[in-house]
């Protein structure tokens, strides 16, 4: 199986690295007050909900947790919390609607109560759409006929509810409550990055799914993979399972005059020293999909057929994970195998 499960970083581990906010009560203690509000229209503030305050000690590595319960108006108050030193941090957390919501305290929280927003949950994956999708050809090894690619997604939950996957029972055919992404046949070396917190990556159908909750707002998902090709052509269908307002395919001009079928040609552009040729499509409905064909891919030379001991060293199929939200700057290691730049075809 080409897909290895990837567990996402714990939000608490990330919060431990961030600066804290302190509402000073005395040199030895501090107070933290606030309100839990419900961001779903028409729903009252949750009463009787447990609020956790985590205090991270930078020097000692300790994590102290304090617990309070919201009142009838969603309010809470932590008193007599031991003061923190430089580098220590504080964070609030609430479990509500099968989702953990967190708030890192900053200096702006000193004078005002903290507002922590939670949402009702939905199983309807239709609340999430893809606003932008980019497919970037990142590397080609003609000796072994393999291509490396990066896909970058900007997703948006436009509702006032949190999408929470239901993994308690197998879904009906065509009915899923989690984000899904398609891959070309025989794709390998999958590596996924996202700013979604929790959940995991699991194989589903011809691709994979992410089981993390999706709160209202914008989120990023990126992944790298490699795919073999036969002769000089590779073809696959991108199912656009969350739809795509804009889908773009980018190929560095240095890879030569590669033909593209299934997408309309667009204007190329240059980033740094790399010129990209571009193709695209717009306003794709969820599940509409688009067939993509790349032709004219480089084939092995006679030296490759005899055996080129450096070909594997030149080809970075173990590509570094792409940082979420960085479309082109994330293509690291470019100079290792760059050839002279060709003109845009």
Describe the structure.
With 345 residues, this protein is mainly beta. The longest helix is centred in the first third of the chain and has 5 residues, at 11-15. It contains 4 helices and 23 strands. A hairpin with a 2-residue loop joins β5 and β6. Helix content is 5%, strand content 44%. Residues 1-26 and 308-345 have low confidence and may be disordered.
Supply the number of helical segments. 4
Low-confidence stretches: 1-26, 308-345
Compute the separation of the termini in Å: 38 Å
Q: Helix amount, in percent?
A: under 10%
Residue-averaged pLDDT: 79
How many DSSP-defined strands? 23
Note the run of SSEs as H and E. HEEEEEEEEEEEEEEEEEEEEEEEHHH
Basic shape: elongated
**Rg from Cα:** 24 Å
Q: What structural class is derived from the secondary structure elements?
A: mainly beta
Strand content: 35-45%
Q: From the structure provided, what is the oligomeric state, counting identical versus distinct chains?
A: single chain
Descriptive terms for the model:
mainly beta, 8-stranded mixed sheet
How would the blueprint of this fold be written?
Blueprint: H1 11-15, E1 29-38, E2 50-56, E3 63-69, E4 75-82, E5 89-96, E6 99-104, E7 114-118, E8 121-122, E9 128-141, E10 146-157, E11 162-163, E12 179-182, E13 188-194, E14 201-204, E15 207-210, E16 217-228, E17 233-238, E18 244-252, E19 259-261, E20 264-265, E21 269-271, E22 274-284, E23 290-295, H2 302-306, H3 311-314, H4 334-337
Parallel strand pairs: 1-7, 8-11, 9-18
Antiparallel strand pairs: 1-4, 2-3, 2-5, 5-6, 9-10, 10-16, 12-15, 13-16, 14-15, 17-23, 18-22, 19-23, 20-22, 21-22
